[in-house]
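Need residues for this backbone.
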């Protein structure tokens, strides 16, 4: 059994992670942390876990967490994670970090998009990005994994094969993405209150969403071609799920069939990417670790459509995929 701890265990991604790990035959949850007063029982924070896990959320220093766990899933906010991760690594634990603190390779880019001075800049550019479909062999021996963002996964997976194959112009990509409200996290915000977001759809952070440089950097790294995107996220009144519609300019007379073939060949052996002919909807992948992708040729453009569950393939499911690779378990364990 591999002992695992979860830092910042009060959020939506944390509860999804706990549910997945509870059915993992080789994982034992040994510690949950939070700054909640009184060390509440996990069922008091996540009632769906009543009778399933008997642990309290404790305010523990990383050195103590490391004595209880072989792997730590860090669900702390941006900036806070990179203040803790070095101590966990020094104590000998492996870490899967859910924040954006290690996803980018340049501290100046991080500071520009996140408005924070990076607490651990020496690891930037050396941390493995946790998208198994692109970086599986680098993930296996890694001690620290930067778990991908949810929007980014929905864009990187459909784009990378076509950019790599030279089928689309990497400098002329428009991503229109829509996410359920859980993507905004569990901390109360005016825009995610029920009366504000129900029966409404709205865009936000136009031109300045933090996932923009992450998409560009990882598609560039995975394809070998410098990539630039315009990314516009939208909030839709549903609990979970992401649908990304991506508008691309083909580099020549590329047919819909050629694009689908390129996607199928790239993901032929991937257990969690489904290249489909129908137009996927968010419900198709809800509650699963699948990403569904298709493509349409329209008036000289290629339109990519991808769907995934933002809490699973976009967060906790991907984290367990990475965990399985890091500890030598079957990659699909607890995810199918």
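Answer:
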């Amino acid at each position: 059994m591999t002992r695992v701890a979860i830092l910042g265990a009060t959020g939506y991604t944390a509860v999804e992670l706990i549910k997945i790990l509870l059915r993992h035959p080789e994982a034992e949850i040994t510690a949950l942390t939070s700054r909640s007063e009184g060390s509440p029982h996990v069922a008091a924070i996540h009632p769906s876990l009543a009778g399933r896990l008997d642990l309290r959320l404790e305010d523990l220093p990383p050195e103590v967490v490391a004595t209880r766990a072989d792997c730590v899933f860090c669900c702390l906010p941006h900036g806070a994670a990179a203040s803790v991760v070095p101590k966990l690594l020094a104590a000998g634990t492996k870490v899967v970090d859910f924040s954006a603190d290690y996803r980018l390779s340049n501290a100046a880019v991080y500071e520009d998009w996140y408005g924070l001075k990076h607490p651990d800049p020496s690891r930037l550019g050396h941390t493995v990005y946790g998208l198994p479909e692109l970086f599986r062999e680098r993930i296996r021996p890694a001690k620290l994994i930067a778990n991908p963002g949810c929007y980014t996964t929905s864009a990187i997976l459909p784009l990378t094969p076509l950019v790599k194959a030279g089928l689309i112009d990497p400098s002329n990509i428009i991503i229109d993405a829509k996410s359920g409200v859980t993507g905004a996290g569990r901390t109360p915000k005016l825009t995610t209150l029920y009366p504000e977001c129900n029966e409404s759809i709205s865009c936000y952070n136009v031109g300045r969403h933090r996932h923009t440089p992450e998409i560009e950097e990882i598609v560039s790294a995975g394809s070998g071609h410098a990539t630039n995107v315009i990314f516009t996220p939208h909030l839709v009144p549903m609990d979970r799920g992401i649908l990304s519609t991506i508008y691309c300019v083909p580099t020549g007379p590329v047919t819909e069939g050629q694009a689908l073939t390129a996607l199928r060949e790239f993901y032929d052996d991937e257990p969690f990417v489904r290249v489909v002919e129908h137009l996927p909807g968010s419900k198709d992948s809800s509650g699963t670790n699948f990403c569904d992708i298709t493509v349409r040729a329209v008036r000289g453009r290629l339109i990519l459509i991808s769907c995934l569950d933002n809490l699973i393939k976009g967060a906790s499911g991907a984290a367990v995929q990475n965990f399985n690779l890091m500890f030598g378990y079957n990659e699909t364990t607890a995810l199918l």
